[in-house]
Amino acid sequence: MTLNEITTALAAHPDAKRATPDGDPARPQCFQCLTVWGSGQCSVLYHWGRRDFADIGEVEAWLAGQIPRSWEL
């Protein structure tokens, strides 16, 4: 996937519509940003919080419905 395709998929993901912890209806529900760090790790920020990934491959796998390796216990 290209970076454009990934960000489009993140915006369309069900997490983008997830309720906020404080239940504030005035808070926009949306995907906010994807950060790729120099180490290769990634962070996805939504209105309710952040999801962390080991790399962009994990983001793509998560969008395909897989549980990221770094999340497994």
What do these coordinates show?
The chain has two helices and three strands; from the N terminus they run H-E-E-E-H. The protein has helices at residues 3-12, 56-63, and strands at residues 31-36, 42-46, 49-53. It has a three-stranded antiparallel β-sheet. Strand 2 (42-46) and strand 3 form a beta hairpin. The model has no long low-confidence stretch (mean pLDDT 91).
Précis, in short:
The protein has 73 residues and is an alpha+beta fold. It has helices at residues 3-12, 56-63; strands at 31-36, 42-46, 49-53. The chain starts with a helix and ends in a 10-residue tail after the last helix.
Q: Main traits of this protein?
A:
globular; three-stranded antiparallel beta sheet; 2 helices; 73 residues; 25% helix; alpha+beta
Content of β-strand: 15-25%
Tell me about the largest β-sheet: 3 strands, antiparallel
User: Averaged pLDDT, please?
Assistant: 91
Helix content: 10-25%
User: What's the helix count?
Assistant: 2
Count the strands?
Answer: 3
Across the major sheet, the strand order is: 1-2-3
Low-pLDDT parts are none
How far the N terminus sits from the C terminus, by CA atoms, comes to 27 Å
- Using only C-alpha atoms, the radius of gyration works out to 12 Å
Q: By helix and strand content, what is the structural category?
A: alpha+beta
Shape: globular
SSE order: HEEEH
